[in-house]
């Protein structure tokens, strides 16, 4: 491999890495925006739960219910969820609830 080819390959890899970093930062910003919108209205005592479903690389389907502010932590803790989000295979359902009401 010539020096020119090596330089071009390294440049391409750096551009891919920069693109991934930009994509991740946009995802984190979108998650923060979603979280702030879904945290609930304290005046009406409403809260929101999210049901998150996703397959992992072995075909096992996962499902969990969380509060919106826990979504970013779940994505960090579950690499398979991050992969499912990138592939469009993750599903999130929003469930508004009222405090004191059994669902």
From TrEMBL:
Protein name, UniProt field: Uncharacterized protein
Organism: Bifidobacterium cuniculi
């Amino acid at each position: 491999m010539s020096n020119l080819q090596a330089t071009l390959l390294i440049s391409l890899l750096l551009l891919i890495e920069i693109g991934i970093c930009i994509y991740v930062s946009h995802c984190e910003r979108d998650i923060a925006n979603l979280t702030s919108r879904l945290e609930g209205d304290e005046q009406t005592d409403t809260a929101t739960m999210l049901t998150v479903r996703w397959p992992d690389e072995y075909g096992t389907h996962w499902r969990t219910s969380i509060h919106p502010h826990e979504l970013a932590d779940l994505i960090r803790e579950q690499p398979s969820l991050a992969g499912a989000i990138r592939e469009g295979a993750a599903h999130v359902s929003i469930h508004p609830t009222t405090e004191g009401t059994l669902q």
